Amino acid sequence: ELKKQISCSLQLTNKSDDNVAFKVKTTSPKKYCVRPNAGIVLPRSTCDVIVTMQSQREAPPDMQCKDKFLVQSVIIDQTATTTYITTEMFAKETGNVVDEVKLQVTYVSPPQPPSPVPEGSEEGSSPRPSVSENGNLNSSELLTVSILHDRFMHTFFWRALLI
Questions:
Q1: Helix H or strand E segment including 78
Q2: Where is this protein found (predicted)?
Q3: CA geometry: angle at 27 spanning 98 and 24, to 5°?
Q4: What is the C-alpha to C-alpha distance for residues 62 and 107, in angstroms, rounded to an integer?
């Protein structure tokens, strides 16, 4: 929706017996606020990350969006704290084993209110298909994407970004 901040939740689940550090990056850091953008997920637990898109003044042409997110994760020492997390930990060039998941942002139009039944229409006629039946998400549905790596499972719950 225009002129409105929109937030969604990203849930990271650690299925391993190790501590896992994560970092979330975006191609449009001025457009999105990610909190926390880095942290540690303890063994067999989850961490919720909130992604907030700043309010937009106008809809993009053709509702196309090239924004992306990158979620990186690495196994870390059991005694490490969040102050231990550094950019170098996520650098593959130094030989670190870094799991990465890329997410593409997709805009969907807000659902339109149902039109009133015109007078004189036949009772029993098929109702107008809902937005969900047409393959689009309505604002109350969540899209779940799970990607399982050997050590870490990322589960993403994205509320539809409506513009």
A1: none
A2: Membrane
A3: 40
A4: 10
- Sequence letter at residue 66: K
Output the CA–CA distances (angstroms, integers) from residue 18 to 46, 70, 82, in the order listed: 13, 21, 15
Length of the chain measured in residues: 163
Residues 111-121: pLDDT tens digits?
Answer: 777 777 666 55
- Distance, CA of 75 to CA of 41 (rounded, Å): 10
CB atoms within 10 A of CB 10: 21
Q: What is the pLDDT of residues 42-65, one digit of tens each?
A: 999 999 999 999 999 988 888 889
For 129, list phi and psi in degrees, rounded to 5. Answer: -60, 145
Total-model pTM: 0.68
Token pair belonging to 43: 């063994």
Amino acid at 9: S
- Cα distance between residue 139 and residue 142, in whole Å: 8
**Strand pairing report for 46-53 and 161-162:** unpaired
Rounded Cα distance, 92 and 98, in Å: 6
